[in-house]
Amino acid sequence: MPTAKIHLLTVMPIGILIVYFTADSCWQFRVLTNEGKVFGLQKLYYTPEAAETAGRRWVGGWKQEL
């Protein structure tokens, strides 16, 4: 089983946004819904910030930093 480094867990109304790194996949995001389902895109990001931004936009929860 490949190892992954979790960078960020963010609680959102839809569930939990997870940003993680795997050695062969760069940075990615997944959303674990309140019902226990896992969703996400198979796109690769080169920074954790880019993966987080994409994840927030994907779930419609993007907010500008104050």
Q: Hey, roughly how much beta strand do the residues contain?
A: 35-45%
Detail the poorly predicted runs: none
What is the helix fraction of residues, given as a range?
10-25%
Task: Please compute the radius of gyration using only Cα atoms.
Answer: 11 Å
Total count of strands: 4
**Can you give the mean pLDDT?**
86
Q: Spell out the helices and strands N to C.
A: EEEEH
Strand order of the largest sheet: 1-2-3-4
The end-to-end distance, rounded to whole angstroms, is 40 Å
- How many DSSP H or I helices? 1
Largest sheet: 4 strands, antiparallel
Shape: globular
Which descriptors would you attach to this protein?
66 residues; alpha+beta; 4 strands
Short summary:
This protein has 66 residues and is of the alpha+beta class. It has 1 helix and 4 strands, in the order ββββα.
Description:
- The mean pLDDT is 86.
- Helices cover 18% and strands 41% of the residues.
- It is an alpha+beta fold.
- Strands 1-2-3-4 form a 4-stranded antiparallel sheet, covered by helices on one side.
- The longest helix is centred in the C-terminal third of the chain and has 12 residues, at 48-59.
- Strand 3 and strand 4 form a beta hairpin.
- It has 1 helix and 4 strands, in the order ββββα.
